[in-house]
Amino acid sequence: MSGGSRFDRTADRYAAHARSRDWRQFVDWCRPQPDDRALDVAGGPGLLSAALLPLVASVTVVDASLRLLELAPAGVERVHARAEQLPFADGSFDLVTCVMSLHHVARPPRVLDEIARVLAPGGRVVLEDAIADPDPDIARRWEQVERLRDPEHVRLLELGEARRRLHAAGLRLDAEETWIRTIPTDRWIETAGCSHGAASQVRELVGAASFTQRMWRARFAPAAAGA
Ligand SMILES: C[S@@+](CC[C@H](N)C(=O)[O-])C[C@H]1O[C@@H](n2cnc3c(N)ncnc32)[C@H](O)[C@@H]1O
């Protein structure tokens, strides 16, 4: 793979942000088992991987940013690849996760298909991401802010979009939740490392010291044969 992404350029800053997260609730959603072979797709600096490591047999983190992968903790297997084409055989993993990354990948449906493909029978997929506002006008305006802050932002998925795609790929929804989180505007801008000009524009468009974002998390399992 060629070229450095914005995550290569802002790797240390992004890793510090990921380190500040308490991963325990997400790990609980994964229901980790001692025999699990876990895969974190677009897992960046591997903080979720590190939290899973003592609870499972092995953890692999795959990411497009070499610089972020270099920051992954010891014991985590690192693979430099695109989520759209995972370099693993069908059914290689018992637990597949993807956190805050579906809105960054060029082809989210393709990535969801890949996630379903590498999942072993009886395994679990756990996803989390911000989702688009249900009002299409608000969603469209917000996409402009996101891309101004980070030109590599692709698009927020609509609620139900990932669920439908995974269902078509043979997975059933096991659990799902949505919630609203509050994000400090300056910290959000700073993490992306955008130019001074873009930062001022984003600050003006957001127009407040903080804003809220709709979040979604879901766990999937293979549908029973004949379901
Ligand atoms: C917001 S970060 C999330 C990282 C990690 N999941 C976490 O929660 O800390 C998005 C990640 O997606 C990765 N990424 C973006 N496009 C990708 C692609 N097509 N394939 C693999 N990784 C990708 C970036 O390099 C970055 O590490």
CATH topology type = Rossmann fold
Number of strands: 7
Q: Radius of gyration from the CA trace? A: 17 Å
Helix content: 25-40%
Low-confidence blocks of residues: none
- The total of helices stands at 10
Question: Tell me, what's the shape?
Answer: globular
Q: How many distinct folded domains?
A: 1
Give me the CATH architecture, please. Answer: 3-Layer(aba) Sandwich
CA-to-CA gap between the ends? Answer: 39 Å
Widest sheet: strand ordering: 3-2-1-4-5-7-6
Description:
- By secondary structure, the protein is α/β, with parallel strands linked by helices.
- The protein has a single domain (6-133, 153-182, 214-222), classed as Rossmann fold (3-Layer(aba) Sandwich), CATH 3.40.50.
- It is 37% helix and 27% strand.
- It has a seven-stranded mixed β-sheet with strand order 3-2-1-4-5-7-6.
- Strand 2 (58-63), helix 5 and strand 3 (77-80) form a beta-alpha-beta unit.
- Helix 7 packs antiparallel against helix 10 and helix 9 packs antiparallel against helix 10 (196-206).
- Bound molecules: S-adenosylmethionine.
- The site of S-adenosylmethionine has 20 residues, from loops.
What is the topology?
Elements: H1 6-9, H2 11-19, H3 24-30, E1 37-41, H4 47-52, E2 58-63, H5 66-70, E3 77-80, E4 93-99, H6 108-118, E5 119-130, H7 136-149, H8 161-168, E6 171-184, H9 185-192, H10 196-206, E7 210-222
Parallel strand pairs: 1-2, 1-4, 2-3, 4-5
Antiparallel strand pairs: 5-7, 6-7
Bound molecules: S-adenosylmethionine (SAM).
